[in-house]
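Field notebook, page 224. I keep forgetting to write these up properly, so this time I am using the form the group agreed on. The chain and the ligand, magnesium ion, are recorded exactly as supplied. Prediction of the bound pose follows.
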Amino acid sequence: MVRKQATKVAGKHEVRTLALLAQKGGAGKSTLALHLAVLAQQEGLRTLLVDLDPQRSTAAWWRARTAETPELVETDPDSLAAVLDAARADGVQLVVVDTRPSAERDAVTVARLASLSLIPTRPSILDLRAIGATAELVRETRRPGGIVLNACPPGRGGMDASIVSEARSGLRDYGLPVVPVAIHQRADLAHALIDGRAVSEFAPTGKATRELRQLWRWAKENMA
Ligand SMILES: Nc1ncnc2c1ncn2[C@@H]1O[C@H](COP(=O)(O)OP(=O)(O)O)[C@@H](O)[C@H]1O
Ligand SMILES: [Mg+2]
């Protein structure tokens, strides 16, 4: 009897999908994907990272890792729906999808399957201009989306640097919410890529971890 119930619950199991999308390379898709995946896993969610970028930087990070979680799959956008079905059947609770720099068909495919698409951007004007196409394609899917300012210079006295506050006001025209927390430029975040760990593992009380946690909380609240 109990076992039957358990099977039924498992059958209803939902998997949520968080995608990192940006037309520009270097915006922070891989960095944020792997850090958010580790945070979710640390909270006890069974998490799968999916690397859709042929450059495979997330997969390289994962191979440098000794921990076995989060799990990782390397595939291509056309196989994502099948991977999500398999993940759901297998009891995965969160899938974090890292993508190649693109605002084309494969980005649309991913955004349509995502519970939330996060678009990272650096705060400079050229970077901001480059996210217009990605923001538009996410809006067109009518699925939840958000823009996250990444690699921001430090502010002073608890205030954002002026480039960050200017970016925030410029981003009001993009038709997607901007995540309240800005992720700052921190060596720990870059170091994590070589290290095979995430900053929440080697500096769990540091500022980078605190910002990532705020981003993760926002993502949880905004996933469909
Ligand atoms: N907040 C940050 N602080 C420090 N370095 C960062 C930050 N975000 C990204 N980087 C660095 O910038 C480079 C590009 O980031 P990456 O996540 O690979 O971008 P993408 O996947 O969008 O191409 C990497 O070397 C990464 O370590
Ligand atoms: Mg990348």
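OBSERVATIONS:
- The first helix runs from residue 2 to 11.
- The longest strand covers residues 116-121.
FOLLOW-UP: compare against the apo run.
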